[in-house]
Structures are given as structure tokens and as C-alpha cells.
Amino acid sequence: MTSATGASSVRFDLPEPDAFTEPYWSAAAEGRLLLRHCRACGRTHHYPREFCPHCWSENVEWAPASGRATLYTWSVIHRNDLPPFGTRTPYTAAVVDLAEGPRMMTEVVECAQDALTVGMELEVTFREAEGFRVAVFRPVVAQH
């Protein structure tokens, strides 16, 4: 895509949904996180696949996730020249352990960089971008 000035308007943070992943993106639009669950072995996996990566069964279904996770690892990104990431720096790219078992690449938001700790409790929230909602995670706020 090119704008009137000739500059590229391509974005590198938007998904490319297809018929298979449409339920995932529809749920995200409603503020819900879905994962793939295997009916044969009972394990949950992410990223979405049409088969179970644990037992190879094709008897898998979409299942709602709790939205809870713990921080496994992260990196604070100070420079990224791909649009629109340059306007977001610094940001925290992360891998989280979902409560259901799988690990997920994501971003941690609403958290100071020096407050990040391995194992910290996180909850899903969604970033809106050009009609899509993408799962990101923030620290769980203690409720009194």
C-alpha cells in the first residue's frame, strides 16, 4: 500500500486472518482469548493449528482461555524501524506461560520495565489496531 506521498503505509503489527483462525479473531474482537484444545489427549496448545502438536490428533476444538498467565521471559525493545513499532518504543516483548499450559509470544503493557519479574501474574487485555484486537498482557491488579 502506498500513501499519497508515496510512503509505504504497510503495518507489521496486524494479523492475516483466514477461515481457520477467524474464530480466534472474532473472539478477540469481543475481548475473549481462545486456544486450541485436543479432545484426544486433553492438552491445550497455541499457536492455533488444525492438529494437536502433542499427539497429532485432528480432534481439536476452540476453547475459551482464562486470560491468566505468568511472565516467562521478556526483552525491552528500544528500537524498531518497522511501522508502527517505532512510535511505541520502548515496549516489552514477552513470552508468557498461559494458565492452560502453552507459552505465547505477546507484549506486556501497563507495567514499568523495572517492575517486571519472572513469574509475575498477568492477565489478558486487548490492543485495538485498524479493526483488530490483539491479545497483550498486563500485571494482575490485587483486589482488596
In short:
The protein has 144 residues and is mostly beta strands. Helix content is 6%, strand content 37%.
Can you offer a commentary on this structure?
The chain has one helix at 22-29, and strands spanning 34-38, 44-45, 60-64, 68-77, 91-98, 103-108, 121-129, 132-139. With 144 residues, it is mostly beta strands. It has a five-stranded antiparallel β-sheet with strand order 6-5-4-7-8, covered by helices on one side. A hairpin with a 2-residue loop joins strand 7 (121-129) and strand 8 (132-139). The relative contact order is 0.18.
Q: From the helix content, strand content and strand pairing, which structural class follows?
A: mainly beta
Largest beta-sheet characterization: 5 strands, antiparallel
- Output the radius of gyration: 17 Å
Helix and strand element order: HEEEEEEEE
Helicity range of the residues? under 10%
User: How far is the N terminus from the C terminus?
Assistant: 49 Å
Give the CA-based shape.
globular
User: Using DSSP, what is the number of strands?
Assistant: 8
